[in-house]
Amino acid sequence: MSAVTASLDLPVADAALAESVRIGMETVEARLREAVQQTDQLADTASRHLVEAGGKRVRPMLTLLAAHLGDGDRPEAVQAGVVVELTHLASLYHDDVMDSADQRRGAAAAHLVWGNQIAILVGDLLFARASRIVAELGPEAVDIQAATFERLCLGQMHETVGPSPTDDPIAHYLQVLGDKTGSLIATAGRFGAMFGGCDAQTIDIMIRYGELVGVAFQLADDVIDLSSAGRVSGKVQGTDLREGVPTLPTLLVRRAAADGDTDASTIVGMLDGDLSDDARLAETIEALNEHKVMDAARDESARWAHDAISTLDPLPQSPAKAALQKFAEAVVERTR
């Protein structure tokens, strides 16, 4: 098992590729820790908070895998991996404030340690650091980063506002996932292909692949939040339920209730009740897990992952392509 891919239990069959990505990820990790260092003690401690908590490092891993569709040894790919992970970390500081989350990656959420204002400012600091690093990669990379940041902000805004009365709540939710998760994962794949020297078709394929696998990844996390005790996702089980954050299982059960499913209607009543009590939360989670909407949510995540794999079809067979296929499969396998 490669140390790089252990977070998704993803074996890289080709030994040379596995070793190259492992070395690249070690460099990403070291540079990431350098990038978050601040001269101010408070800013330094708060900036290192989530880096030191660990994480899957999905985005830089994808950047390095995509780079191996071309020349994976180019140093720009590692630098781009630092940019996308730093951007992701910055967004987490903001997300946890918006969602009033208690934990992130097994550690107390930054806003609970230092307050909302400091957490938001630290997120801004990390976005600034990412911008400085990406500037070294050239104007096209800066433009891509800016467009990605715009989508991240729009996704958060649309999630906060919610769907309008005329919107399909599930379609609205999938669009939010595309903006909040798919956009940055697409940029990770795009940067990898770009800085690996790949042609325009390969870059376009990686953009599409990243969008699709990013949504699949978040849909899988929706299921994991209800079917594991946080061991995989790094979140406390039922966090989204307790905070009233929409997820695909809850949206599906609401739709089923509206269509006359009495069991679903009972669950909706539980969702709309007081879930601050641990016993009530556990009862609601159990009821959801026993309903068919959980299988439907798993199937939807698998569909997005399958579509991501299909986008790779035009690429010639290679160890990197095989690893990207396995990457998408592993995203969904976490829910089984």
UniProtKB/TrEMBL annotation:
InterPro entries: Isoprenoid_synthase_dom_sf, Polyprenyl_synt, Polyprenyl_synt_CS. Signal peptide: none annotated. Keywords: Magnesium, Metal-binding, Transferase. The keyword Transferase applies. Its cofactor is Mg(2+). It comes from the Bacteria. It holds the Pfam family polyprenyl_synt. Transmembrane segments: none annotated. Belongs to the FPP/GGPP synthase family. This is Polyprenyl synthetase family protein. It comes from Kineosporia mesophila.
